[in-house]
Design goal:
The protein is an alpha+beta fold. It contains 1 helix and 8 strands. The radius of gyration is 20 Å and the shape is globular. The structure holds calcium ion.
């Protein structure tokens, strides 16, 4: 009987990570409608920060230093800028028209302060 109980305990412990893993798809990636630009706080389009149809020439602010992924469903390039005090702002990532970027990488991750639409 004691052996059986131990086996059940092990099964329960194993079941916990499985449950956490299967909970993943419930936190599904956020959508981005056709002809919109969307930027997300996390990789793979999770935690939407921006959902915009701003026109060419516009500047679009975003919650500072959080962007990690984006979907550019516009027919225009969106440039992600890093603001620098006392120095010119720099483009840290160019989001080409009609492209999805699941992770901007270490050079731009959590550095974008605003976008310019081209
Ligand atoms: Ca982030």
């Amino acid at each position: 009987m004691r052996k059986t109980l131990r086996a059940l305990t092990v099964a329960t412990v194993i079941a916990v990570p499985t449950t956490l893993f299967t909970a993943g798809p419930a936190a599904a990636a956020d959508t981005c409608a056709s002809d919109h630009f969307c930027a997300y706080q996390h990789a793979s389009y999770r935690g939407k920060l921006v959902d915009s149809r701003a026109a060419g020439g516009a500047t679009v602010d975003v919650a500072n230093d959080q962007v990690t992924s984006a979907k550019n469903r516009r027919n225009m390039r969106w440039d992600g800028y890093n603001s620098r005090t006392g120095l010119p702002d720099t483009v840290v990532f160019r989001f080409q028209a009609q492209t999805n970027v699941p992770n901007v990488g270490s050079g731009a991750n959590d550095k974008i302060d605003y976008f310019k639409v081209n």
